[in-house]
Amino acid sequence: MTNKQLQKLLKDMSLDEKIGQLTQLAGSMYGSDAIVTGLLDMFSINDKALEMSGSVLSVIGAEAIKKLQDENMAKQPHHIPQIFMYDVINGYQTIYPVPLGQGATFNPDTVEKLAHMSAVESAAAGIHVTFSPMVDLVRDARWGRVMESTGEDPYLNGLLGAAMVKGYQGDDVKAKGNVAACVKHFAGYGGAEAGRDYDNVELSERTLREDYLAAYEACIKAGAKLVMTSFNTLNRVPSTGNKWLMKKVLREEMGFDGVLISDYGAVKEMINHGYSRDEKQAAEQSMKAGLDMEMMSTAYISHLKELVDEGTISMDMIDEAVMRLLVLKNDLGLFENPYKDGDPKEEKKLILCKKHRELARKAAAESFVLLKNEDNILPLADAKGASVAFIGPYADEKQIHGSWSFPNDYNTFVSVKEGILGNVTTAKTTFKQGCYRLDHNKKLKDGSMFEVNETKKEKMLNDAIAAAKKAKTVVMCLGEHFMQTGEATSRTDLNVSPEQIELLRKVREVNPNIVTLVFAGRPLEMDVIDELSKAVIYCWFPGTEGGNAVADVLYGKCEPGGRLPMSFSHKAEQLPNYYSRFRSGRPNNGTLDQGFVMGYIDQADLFKYPFGYGMGYSSFEYSNVTLDKSSITRKDTITATVTIKNTGDRVSTETVQLYIQDLFGNVVRPRRLLKGIKKVTLKPGKKTKVSFEITDDMLKFWDIDMNYASEDGDFRVYIGPDSLTENCAYFNLHQ
Ligand code: NOJ
């Protein structure tokens, strides 16, 4: 439609119709067989509202969506198509690594390809909008939703979030195989106090802008069509009713002109926050704050008309919001083709096709982080005489995806056992569960309890120990339950279950050659696992092709390619913790023999593994950093260079990282900040130069007067393999 036609349509619409457009309801309310992603009993709704609503949540499948689209369009006075939205977070049916695992790839190309793959699959299944990327910065692994974010760093989150937007939307969202992206959760949701989901977020404006908002902005610059508000209160105001946040920051400063949708029930939840007296006030506050669409509560549909009639809300305000919805529908081409790419035949053909599986397999290996490899125990040899016992609850488990994956069929998943049996031809392998993933009666996210069969427990353990005794090497397959990750899964205890640790200890008593694989959606406590294992690979939740990727990496078909997108602390008690912290007046040298210094008297170093850390199967040597200039003005750029050499005996890829530290500032500056990433693949013995351009933009920060600007002074440029590198050079910035 042309803009003129859209204007005409808007003019023709009744107020009821307009308000309907601003409401999104769950597919299950239409009697559809929909996925449920939140509480359903928050309100009751009448048929009229269902017919008028502008969008449906979580119905999947081309046929089901077509049916509902036809029925609802027929009932609407202007036959306006509904938008079908869904949480396609890490793949539709071909599930790939959870976002935190994607963060570990440090690779925007891979992340873009994955997003495109899930767009292609979900678009064929009738979906128009995905609720992704989530770019909430997170520094506290107790928060269950760490799994859904790409980590703790504003630059990395922005880079990968923007890559996802491009992957989903392509150049033209209307084109075949594309869906619209919804950036979430605006804003600061990852800063929940003590990692408690849905709790308050208290951030200074400087921290909010510099650390938390940067990634949302990168996604908006990449053209994201929608933004979702967050559940939390931000500095005492619920995001969903926060006028400053939405009108000033998001619309005016960031220039976002797409659809702003609430999170699930978040408008009504402003009453629980004690910010709105009742639903009517919640509707007024949200509308005035700039919220276009309400997801899964009915404050708009029940009260906007009354608010317009009494003059509290203007018709212009309503029209503006409705127009954004119409424009989105038009951008998606829904007025011409309300099903977009939804097509049962295509859906069948594309879902889990060979190309998608191959990409998921490659990406999983690229996300695995090798944390330790004593005696070069890895890669394992697929050779005669080699025997490996795979032990642990993940040795043959198909639930190797994070939350927000809704596989239609678990048979499509490749467990570790299946991956090994399908790829390892000569070595002798055995598989033993050893123990359950969790204790009896452990609470899962949906409130259900994990159950175990007590009589089986002892036998499982004995079988595992017998297998460990006989094998040359043991691969322990441990981890969290996937239902301990995602929304509403904050944890105070960040260990794998006590049973799994006990199993590991018992196995260690009979066989010291242990490689441990950890499946998890967050950084867990790793001291004990590290101590008892010769090698450790962090596999996150790898998805459909996880077992094949494990086989590829363990047996050296490819390297584990990941680097940590979050710092790992020794203990949950150290959280929040992150590499870009500020310098203390009482620095700590990482030992316990100093008094009166920043830190703890019972924990020497800050990190178990630093941000950016990870190994391949080779080793690299870095030369000193050189700069082509040591003094610049704001118009100049500096080229910073290192030479890296592959000093091992395998082809290997190094993730070269650039960090910059502003040595003195009119506000205290972080210890360093990631500003560049380059992936370099080298043959054994070969070396190459790696360069980064440093521009004034990379030096800017929110200064003492809240201007975003760089300050004259001295800077340190680090280039190395992780955030603790000391390989650096200096330059000066002046007028
Ligand atoms: C609530 C979650 O916070 C959000 O991330 C998700 O997209 C919506 N529910 C819809 O399922």
* Share in β-strands: 15-25%
Residue ranges: pLDDT <50 for 5 or more in a row?
none
- Mean pLDDT rating: 96
Any idea what the radius of gyration is? 26 Å
- Summed up, the helix count is 20
Name the CATH class of the largest domain: Alpha Beta
Strand order, largest beta sheet: 9-6-5-4-3-2-1-10
The CATH H-level superfamily of the largest domain is: Glycoside hydrolase family 3 C-terminal domain
Count of individual beta strands: 29
Bound molecules: 1-deoxynojirimycin
**Spatial gap, N to C terminus:** 52 Å
Helicity, as a percent range: 25-40%
Key attributes of the depicted protein:
binds 1-deoxynojirimycin, Immunoglobulin-like, globular, 29 strands, 735 residues, TIM Barrel, 8-stranded parallel beta sheet, 6-stranded mixed beta sheet, 3 domains, alpha/beta, Rossmann fold
Report on this structure.
By secondary structure, the protein is α/β, with parallel strands linked by helices. The protein folds into three domains: 1-86 and 231-351, TIM Barrel (Alpha-Beta Barrel); 352-574, Rossmann fold, CATH 3.40.50; 620-733, Immunoglobulins (Immunoglobulin-like, Sandwich), CATH 2.60.40. It has 20 helices and 29 strands. Strands 9-6-5-4-3-2-1-10 form an eight-stranded parallel β-sheet. Strands 11-18-17-16-12-13 form a six-stranded mixed β-sheet, sandwiched between helices. Strands 21-29-28-23-24 form a five-stranded mixed β-sheet. Helix 6 (108-124) packs antiparallel against helix 15 and helix 17 (454-470) runs parallel beside helix 18. The longest helix has 17 residues, at 108-124. The chain is globular and about 75 Å long. The two termini are 52 Å apart. It binds 1-deoxynojirimycin (NOJ). 1-deoxynojirimycin binds at residues 37-38, 87, 131, 184, 263-264, 487.
